[in-house]
Amino acid sequence: MATNVKRLAYFEKWVDPVAEDILGRREDIELVRRHYADPDGDNAAVMARVHGYQIAPRTELREPWFGDADLLRRCPSLLAISSTGAGFDMVDVAACTAAGVIVCNQSGTNKEAVAEHALGLMLALAKNIGITDRALRRDRDLDRFLYTGRELRGRTVGIVGLGQIGTRTAELCRGLFGMTVLAFDPYLTAAEAAARGALQVSLDELLARADFVSVHCPRNDETFGMFGAAQFAGMRPTAYFVNTARGGIHDEPALEAALVAGRIAGAGIDVFLKEPPPPDHPLLRLANVIATPHIAGITEESLRNMSEAAAEQWIALFEGRVPPRLINPEAWPRYAERFEALIGFRPDAL
């Protein structure tokens, strides 16, 4: 039965309340707030009736509310799932496509925050900021020349994944420090990479030449475990590895082994396979590792940007327009049929 009211569910809270302000002004959208601690039966009954689901980030998300085939089976009215930021690895996109459910993200809305964080990790590693902070707190007679750092100017950075965040990182490295920017992105041509300020090379060449390797690709079947023992062995012993993308793209035991053996100089890690990592995680015991708790994309500005973008995208979607950050356009034909049956009018064509 078609309805004029579109029900949009989320758990706990938006990362910035501006989204609730924007959406709350719409008489045709009913915001449905749930809590993970609510009885499972109550949550299931409510979720079975919603048309949209603003899914929480992976770190905060709880079972059984991942965007998987089981959720789709339990939510027959669901038309769309939207992620908080650029990442959408908590959603089974293939299952959504098969079910006629579209998936959206907020790509680009936190690019400044993540790019700045990646650059901050590069600076902290090259200048030995983490190591010297600990030494200054520990050592009475500190020999500062033991901690001589390196400058970023004129170095080479290798960017893996030249999307919006990778492109902004390239811009900062090139513009601020005159760095040579290499990129590996199999979905771009050499001309497209050049237009984004980078020289497209193979992954092996990038690893062999880069002083800093910065990861900015999504986590999926292609990239899970992308950096293992062979890749770290292919890096220069003076090079640093930085990952602000997703845990699991690098093999954590392989990274630990490379750092302990001195095959690479250090690592800046914002993401872990299990988040938050346990305090006794092997990487957290290493002096040449700077770790942060998946906060690269979390700034006051980016949280507001992501929430505003998500709210506006939901409005576009529920008005029948094509959302600007659609992940699976191949789902659109079936989605359009389901939208018309549930909402009462046909959405725009792609």
Automatic annotation (TrEMBL):
Any GO molecular function: oxidoreductase activity, acting on the CH-OH group of donors, NAD or NADP as acceptor
Positions of the D-isomer specific 2-hydroxyacid dehydrogenase NAD-binding domain: 119-296
Sorted UniProt keywords: Amino-acid biosynthesis, NAD, Oxidoreductase
Chloroplast keyword on record: no
Listed SUPFAM superfamilies: Formate/glycerate dehydrogenase catalytic domain-like (SSF52283), NAD(P)-binding Rossmann-fold domains (SSF51735)
Domain of life: Bacteria
UniProt KW Oxidoreductase keyword: yes
Gene3D superfamilies per UniProt: NAD(P)-binding Rossmann-like Domain (3.40.50.720)
GO biological process, one term: amino acid biosynthetic process
Domain D-isomer specific 2-hydroxyacid dehydrogenase catalytic: 42-328
Family: Belongs to the D-isomer specific 2-hydroxyacid dehydrogenase family.
Annotated PANTHER family: D-ISOMER SPECIFIC 2-HYDROXYACID DEHYDROGENASE FAMILY PROTEIN (AFU_ORTHOLOGUE AFUA_6G10090)
Protein name from the UniProt record: D-3-phosphoglycerate dehydrogenase
